[in-house]
Amino acid sequence: DFGRSSELAFVVEPSDDIAVQEQPLILYCQVEGIQPITITWRKNGVMIVDSENAFMLANGSLYVSRFQRVRGDGSSDEGEYDCMAQNHYGLVVSRKAKIQAATMSDFHIHPQNAVVEEGGVARFQCQIHGLPEPVILWHKNSMPVNTDNERYTLLPKGVLQITGLRAEDSGIFHCVATNIANVKFSREARLTVSGSHSTVYKDPMILVGPENLTLTVHQTAVLECIATGNPRPIVSWSRLDGRPIGVEGIQVLGTGNLMISDLTVQHSGIYVCAANKPGTRVRRTAQGSLVVQAPAEFVQHPQSISRPVGTTAIFTCVAQGEPPPQITWLRNGEILETSDHIKLKNNNSTLSIYGINQADEAIYQCLAENSAGSTQASARLTVLWADGLPSPPQGVRAETVSATTIQVSWEKPLQNTKEIIGYVLHIRKAADPVEMEYQEAVSKSTFQQLVTDLEPSTSYSFYIKAYTSRGASKASEVTVVSTLGEVPAMPSLFIKVINSTTVQATWEPSIKLGQHEGFKLYYRKVHLSQYTGPVLLASNVTAYNITHLADASVVYEVKLLAYNQHGDGNSTVRFVSLRETVERTVLNPPCDCMKDEQNNKTSTTGIIIGIHIGVTCIIFCILFLMFGYRGRLLMCKNVQEQLSTPQIPRSQRSTTGLVLNGATRRDRDDRDLNGKQLDMNELERLFPASPSQEQQEKGILSAHSSSAPHDETQISTLPLDEFSIIEEQPDPLPNNTHGSSPAASAPDHGPANEG
């Protein structure tokens, strides 16, 4: 912070300290700046007057000759001290230094007797409060414990751990607490090591886990974790959030205690101690939280600035710490009060002073403070004022022109008007903060300005400044005036015919309507001059049904408008006719719902039956066409073979041709009995009989009894998997010289094709 302000700044500030009873105490304070500088001290906000017990040294430090926690009159030298420095530029206050008396209480936890088997773990603890924190040492049999023994672990909080116990560890233990205030001894405790090392399996168990700690950066944290079990468990550490613990500044004390040196805020978190059985996943855990606080420190200091009268001065002060610090502003050592022209924003990080004047010239300080400490920084505001500047403009008036326009007029200043280069009109809604103000520049020869684009029914404040090349005049008097009210805008309107006697008017709410109290609805027959209405509707209503419109032969006019305290707005008009609705009603009379319902049920049943019949017919037609086409194909093939084969007696023709032709057409000549018998035998061979004899006879009769020229349906009734065609090659000899039967005259080679 050195050299941040040449006007006045601290070089050394008092710091927190712990004082010893009846011993002297010195609090240091050193300031630099433009002389003369006066230094004073305060305790708990009250000025300290020099006395025999406390007085200020020549270098500005405070000397307390005999510090006392409690004096005879009940007062105490403990408290918060700060140093104040002042010169003709202003006053600054140092950070607060917290002074406490060194103390030591009695032990509130003493070590306890313990009996532990050989190879086990022993733990003794003693606890005492004091300022500063007492240093605790352990004695065994009235001698300091040998800290070189790796089996002995001494923790800062007064804990002694002994692992891998042996018979020689038995003895009497006590602790000794020491600080600048006193030295105290705890009660004694006896440790007895019994028996030999046990080989019985024991699950891992955590005797003592980490406790919750709150410390400050750069301190050292020790998280205790001591575990037992057989075999001896392995102790490991992790963070609950999964982040790595790291290695820098990390050390393991004894068999599992975690020590973190030079703490930072990043070390804050929940730490988990795990006792793991070697070679298995059996484990026990315990956890504790570590909170690391950081004193407030500045990221950005406020800077001294110079600004002309009437302008805006802004100071920025950004601080960090853990917990986040609170920021307070001082003006010449006093708490800064906000007003219309002094504003604090961004959690007090930004100080804005609007329309500054000479009274605002001072030293402004930013104090950042949290539970871990405090700090301060200062900056000076210099207000520039030039001699010979114009006096404020006179006679400022504002007149309302319309709902969105105001005319402001003024007169030139009374003094120093020759150097004026223009005027600036400052405009702001009366209800808005100062930082919402905006300006309009006006030439030096103009003494009025029409301000437009304002909001209806709103109050505005105006003031004027005259500007020269060397600066601005002081502000004129402020005048406040309101714009006129404005009637609402036209609403959107939609008409929907509900039935032959009713229409519905609907509209949409919109901010474009402006401020309105409600709606007025009118309607009439277009040929009449008189409206029905108004129907008054609330501002939240968006629909209305117009009923009892009995005359369908005419056109109706519907009109809607919004209104407020300033009057009625423009209306929206729509026209509607009910004739089409009436005609549709005549053409489509109302239905008998019960009758229609019964008809619907009957119709539904008929439709379902019709669908089934139609699907069945389609299936049969497809089958009919398939088998009919196949039969005709076979017939055509047989006729072709007969035409290409030499004519032989009927009795010697191929059986294939006999069967196929017998199934499709009949020879008009009479056949002899032998020929008929042969035909029946061939049919039996080509079409095996079914298991029932009766069915066989019926099949044969159906093949011969019908005389229809095209009996394709009978062929199609034969099962496809039993249907086969045997095509035989004709005998190459034209005559049968042996006169054998047709069966014997067939060639002895097998069929050429079998399908």
UniProtKB/TrEMBL annotation:
The chain crosses the membrane at residues 607-627. One of its GO terms (biological process) is cell-cell adhesion. PROSITE patterns: FN3 (PS50853), IG_LIKE (PS50835). Residues 8-100, 105-192, 204-287, 295-382 form the Ig-like domain. It holds the Pfam family fn3. Residues 392-486, 487-584 form the Fibronectin type-III domain. Residues 644-658, 734-743 have a biased composition (Polar residues). The keyword Transmembrane helix applies. The keyword Disulfide bond applies. It comes from the Eukaryota. Keywords: Disulfide bond, Glycoprotein, Immunoglobulin domain, Membrane, Repeat, Signal, Transmembrane, Transmembrane helix. It is found in: Membrane. Residues 664-674 have a biased composition (Basic and acidic residues). Residues 644-755 are annotated as: Disordered. Its main location: membrane. One of its GO terms (cellular component) is membrane. It is a single-pass membrane protein. InterPro entries: FN3_dom (IPR003961), FN3_sf (IPR036116), Ig-like_dom (IPR007110), Ig-like_dom_sf (IPR036179), Ig-like_fold (IPR013783), Ig_I-set (IPR013098), Ig_sub (IPR003599), Ig_sub2 (IPR003598). PANTHER family: IMMUNOGLOBULIN SUPERFAMILY DCC SUBCLASS MEMBER 3, PROTEIN SIDEKICK. Belongs to the immunoglobulin superfamily. DCC family. This is Immunoglobulin superfamily DCC subclass member 3. It comes from Chaetops frenatus.
